[in-house]
Design brief:
The chain is of the alpha+beta class and 602 residues long. The protein contains 21 helices and 19 strands. It has helices at 4-10, 38-47, 52-59, 72-86, 89-94, 134-147, 162-165, 179-193, 198-213, 217-234, 285-296, 316-323, 333-363, 365-375, 426-444, 458-471, 508-542, 549-559, 562-567, 570-574, 580-601; strands spanning 18-23, 29-35, 63-68, 103-106, 114-117, 126-128, 247-255, 258-267, 270-280, 307-309, 327-328, 382-391, 394-404, 407-408, 414-417, 451-454, 478-483, 489-494, 499-502. Strands 12, 13, 14, 15, 16, 17, 18 and 19 form an eight-stranded mixed sheet that branches. Strands 9-8-7-10-11 form a five-stranded mixed sheet. A three-stranded antiparallel sheet has the order 2-1-3. Strand 1 and strand 2 form a beta hairpin. Helix 9 packs antiparallel against helix 10 (217-234), helix 13 packs parallel to helix 14 and helix 15 (426-444) packs parallel to helix 16 (458-471). The relative contact order is 0.05.
């Protein structure tokens, strides 16, 4: 089940393409994914039943981030980059070590070739990619080899190769091809891979229509597929720029006195990393952003880019002068689109913060206010709730939880071992814990609650009122939390005659009562379990001859559990300063208990 924090964030997800980054409780990235619709995809992890590794992944997700992109392809390319950067555990396992993603490469040779590769090397070659579809890259390469051929053979061999006869090789196999001839072809190839595909698509479209007119439908279908592959492979994208200048992209969004800043790090022509910051505005947004950028590069370990991109409201001359890094504002093209994408993400992060705060307010302060309205109270700022726990009348305990403005204040939780009650008696248990709690608050002149909630019915309510009114002379409103047959919160008992107060099951007041009831029950059960386990251990040790309080405490302190004490050898017991005789008695007592238990099972 997702945490309340994640549940709230899921409600705010945009229906846009982008990347989601899953993190564990330590903030480590454990999975990176992408989707055409972030809202549907991310919600599916927590709203659908999962199996196998995916279930294990969801179990380890403590938080997530999103980066919005303009297209699905951009999200795919960003996903590739982030997986390569973080090497998340579940990506490596789930993708089964897929290796690299394909690039189209024009080699740096006297007689250059085109090929598809998964690795980028510093060898002077031209690389285009990475591409999201290996098959599409292969098909596009085949098209380029037919349309703008370079060398496809192994080099000079004294005769023309088969590819030369098919017009797919310039003929390095039997002649010296002039460099200018290669350069003319490479220029056309670069133009094509940079997105200028109009001419090529016109040629293919004409060929497809001719094939269809000649009833060569299979050939027409092949050309149609090739058109689709080309569009998927060379479609213009913002995530991959067409130069390798290292640059940082800054943009911001300001609202309601808060500033959200996004920094995109463009390295190796890709968006390699994203930094986000949120803080209140003390001057103007532009001044805050300028100060942020200057301080950003003032850090000793900060690697400086070759260029900074900022929105037009930021003075580029000031940035350049103060950082020593050229700053500019692009007005068109990919870099302008990157700025827009940074601003959109900055806006999303700030909007998410406000909406989470608003939701939290409704669930906490708003819920407490709604509950006070339902009960006709001036305030429900502070609510104290009690519950009891025992097993067959043994180890009787009570527990108190405190909620302030709809939120648990765990520093004020209290545990009570009942002293005057020796058997299961709800009324007596209630009287004791109420008497102890509020007598203490009165003596300390501490703040009293606005409302007391009891996890029980009329018996407990009457016991509370009896102590408050007749013994302590206190007028504190008291209500009982009633459960339905499925042991879920149903309504409240409240008023002079303990009448039922129906709560709207979809209201925040209802959810608050439900959270309080679940929390006090959890706290009481947890306390009772710990106490019962400790008492069970103590009683078993006390029954062994020669084991007194000192020896018992020594054993519990050093071994920590009965299981470890049972498994200890005579020598290990003696190392605690216990005599050999007592150590043997302890060891063989547990051995006999195990043997008796096994015999009984048979």
């Amino acid at each position: 089940m997702a945490s309340e924090h994640i549940e709230n964030k899921l409600k705010l997800l945009p229906e846009k393409p982008g990347v989601y980054i899953m993190k564990d409780q330590n903030g480590k990235v454990i999975y990176v994914g992408k989707s055409k619709n972030l809202k549907n995809r991310v919600r599916s992890y927590f709203k659908s039943r999962q199996y196998g590794r995916r279930a294990k992944l969801v179990e380890n997700i403590a938080d997530y981030e999103t980066i919005i992109t303009a297209t699905d392809k951009e999200s795919f390319l960003l996903e590739i980059t982030l997986i390569q950067k973080y090497r998340p555990y579940y990506n490596v396992r789930l993708k089964n070590g897929t290796g690299g993603y394909p690039y189209i490469k024009i080699t740096n040779e006297r007689d250059p070739r085109m090929l598809v590769t998964s690795y980028v090397k510093n060898d002077g070659a031209y690389y285009y990619g990475p591409y999201p579809n290996v098959y599409a890259a292969d098909e596009t390469l085949k098209f380029l080899q037919k349309m703008y051929p370079l060398r496809r053979c192994n080099g000079y061999q004294g005769r023309a190769c088969l590819y030369y006869h098919m017009d797919q090789c310039l003929g390095a196999c039997f002649r010296e091809v002039p460099k200018v001839e290669y350069q003319a072809q490479i220029k056309k190839i670069k133009s094509f891979l940079n997105g200028n595909v109009t001419e090529a698509k016109q040629i293919l479209t004409r060929r497809m229509n001719e094939a269809a007119q000649n009833l060569e439908f299979e050939r027409a279908a092949e050309i149609r597929d090739q058109l689709n592959y080309i569009q998927a492979t060379v479609e213009k994208q913002k995530i991959i720029s067409h130069d390798y200048t290292q640059r940082d992209v800054f943009n911001f969004y300001a609202d309601k006195g808060w500033l959200s800043i996004q920094v995109f790090y463009i390295r190796q022509a890709r968006l390699m990393k994203r930094t986000k910051r949120l803080f209140p505005i003390l001057s103007t947004p532009e001044e805050e952003v300028t100060n942020f950028i200057v301080q950003f590069y003032d850090q000793q370990d900060r690697v400086q880019p070759r260029e900074i991109l900022v929105p037009k409201s930021i003075d580029t001359d000031v940035i350049t002068q103060l950082t020593g890094i050229p700053a500019r504002t692009p007005v068109r093209g990919q870099k302008r689109a990157l700025l827009r994408m940074a601003q959109e993400n900055a806006k999303y992060v700030l909007d998410e913060k406000f909406r989470l705060l608003e939701m939290n307010q409704r669930k906490t302060v708003g819920a407490a206010h709604d509950l006070s309205q339902v009960l006709g109270l001036p305030s429900a700022h502070r609510i104290e709730a009690f519950d009891h726990s025992h097993i067959d009348g043994a180890d009787l305990v009570s527990a108190l939880v405190v909620f302030e403005d709809g939120k648990p204040n765990k520093n004020m939780y209290r545990k009570y071992k009942l002293k005057t009650v020796t058997h299961a008696d709800e009324a007596a248990s209630t009287r004791e814990v109420i008497r102890r709690r509020y007598t203490r608050l009165l003596k300390e002149h501490s703040e009293l609650p606005d409302l007391i909630l009891m996890d029980g019915g009329e018996i407990q309510l009457n016991a509370v009122k009896d102590v408050l009114e007749n013994e302590l002379d206190l007028d504190i409103p008291v209500a009982g939390m009633v459960k339905n047959p499925k042991h879920k919160t149903a309504d409240l008992l409240y008023g002079v005659n303990d009448q039922h107060v129906d709560l709207d099951p979809h209201s925040q007041a209802f959810y608050l009562v439900q959270r309080i009831q679940d929390e006090v029950h959890r706290f009481a059960i947890s306390f009772h379990h710990d106490l019962h386990s400790k008492n069970s251990m103590t009683s078993r040790l006390d029954s062994i001859k020669g084991v007194g309080p000192k020896t018992r405490n020594k054993l519990l302190r050093n071994f920590g559990s009965m299981k470890k004490i049972e498994a200890a050898s005579v020598e290990e017991l003696q190392q605690l300063g216990i005599s050999k005789t007592v150590a043997q008695t302890i060891h063989y007592s547990f051995a006999n208990q195990v043997a008796v238990g096994e015999h009984a099972q048979k």
